[in-house]
Amino acid sequence: MAESSERAVVIAMDGSEHSTFAFDWYFDNVHKENDRVILLHVPEYRTVVQSPMVMADVSVITDLMQEEEKRIKDYLELLGNSLKAKGVGGKVKSCGGNPGEVIIRVAKEENAAFIVTGTRGMGTIRRTLLGSISDYIIHHSHIPVLVCRHKDSHKSH
Amino acid sequence: MAEMEGTQTVAVIGMDGSEHSEYALKWYKENVHRPGNKVYIVYSPEYSSITNPASSVMTGNATHILRVVQEEEQRISALLSKLKEKVDSLQLEVSEIIRINGDPGHKIVKVAVEKHADVIVVGTRGIGKIRRTFLGSVSDYVIHHSHVPVLVCSHKDLH
Fold first, then answer.
1. SS3 per residue for A37-84
2. Which of A149, B54, B109, B128 is paired with A43 by a 20 to 30 Å CA distance?
3. Rounded CA Rg of chain A
4. Is the pLDDT of residue A47 over 70?
5. Topology of B2-47+94-158 in CATH?
6. Min CA distance, B129 vs chain A (Å)?
7. A1 lies in some domain
8. Domain residues for A48?
9. B2 to chain A nearest CA, in Å?
10. Distance between alpha carbon B7 and the CA centroid of its chain, in Å?
11. DSSP states of B59-93 as a string?
12. Which pLDDT score is estimated for A1?
């Protein structure tokens, strides 16, 4: 009586070890064969925006942006490879915008069964127990959210 | 922790009798549960008659209080039976239904630690009457204090 109906699963990926952990945990403990996984990346042009060199030469900014774009492209390729390596059906998606909002929106568009997220991202500030984007997702999702807390995230940095 | 061949995944499900927690149980079974997983249900019934300040428990009449407590116990036994029925109808093998009194968030996390849980499952709200926030206080507590992944079972129709 196995139900092999397809589920779409949105996994929020940002390059942090937390999102990698979330993807691995989902795969080891929840993944079903017919799952259609959407690895969703919402790039933030952090390097350029926070750089003190913003007022400098236009070519410097262009170079920084190109570097950032290459970084993103490489990351998306890495995500694609990780899907292949695990034999998981699905795709890699990259959308600009406010990450929390984008993740919720894409989950709706893809008719996702649930969302998978880590508890933090790349940000270095550890003021709270839960990162702002994970927090946003939990409070705005109308579908179940799997919040993958890595036990090491309790250790102080 | 002893390394067994094919170590089981342990799931702790926080329930309080609300339809949110029932939805969480069902969703866990249909979407996450794998045969061989060990499932513990932490059940937190609400002593509504006693905690409700408007109730006549405030009279201080010992016989009356005793009767109210007994009625409450009967009500909770009925709820526990209903829960067992629900579990059976889902064909879910549950290792233990642990009944707790008070402080559900804290106790759910405590049980999860004791049983070496790999995941905690909660609804977004419970049976409580206060609807100040989008996410109930127990779910919120568990999400922030769990050392393991938490499955928060939001359901659009139940908001």
1. EEEEECCCCHHHHHCHHHHCCHHHHHHHHHHHHHHHHHHHHHHHHHHH
2. A149
3. 17
4. no
5. Rossmann fold (3.40.50)
6. 19
7. no
8. 7-156
9. 19
10. 25
11. G--HHHHHHHHHHHHHHHHHHHHHHHHHHHHTT--
12. 44
Number of domains observed in the structure of chain A: 1
A143 vs A122: which has the higher pLDDT: A143
The reported pLDDT for the residue numbered B132 is 58
Whole-structure pTM value: 0.85
Q: Do residues A41 and A92 make contact, with C-beta atoms less than 8 angstroms apart? A: yes
Residue A125, pLDDT above cutoff 90: no
- Chain A residue with CA closest to B117: the answer is A151
Pick A29's closest partner by Cβ from B30, B118, B152. B118
Contacts of B31 in chain A (CB under 8 A): 7, 30, 113-114, 144
- Please report where in the chains the tokens 């067994």 appear, as a residue: B4
Other Cβ atoms within 10 Å of B40 Cβ, number: 22
**Domain of A134: which CATH number?**
3.40.50.620
**Residue extents of the structural domains in chain B:** 2-47+94-158
Give the pLDDT confidence score for residue B101 in this predicted structure.
Answer: 85
Q: Which residues of chain B have pLDDT under 50?
A: 1-5, 53
- The C-alpha angle with vertex B30 and arms to A33 and B4, in degrees rounded to 5, equals 70
ipTM of the complex: 0.84
- Identify whether the C-beta of residue B25 lies closer than 8 Å to the C-beta of residue B15: yes
Residue A128 confidence class, pLDDT cut points 50, 70, 90: confident
Query: Are A138 and A144 in contact, with CB atoms under 8 Å apart?
Result: no
How far is Cα B4 from Cα A49, in angstroms, rounded to an integer?
50
Local structure of A9: helix, strand or coil: strand
End-to-end CA distance of chain B: 40
Radius of gyration of chain B (CA): 17
Which pLDDT does position B79 carry in this prediction? 86
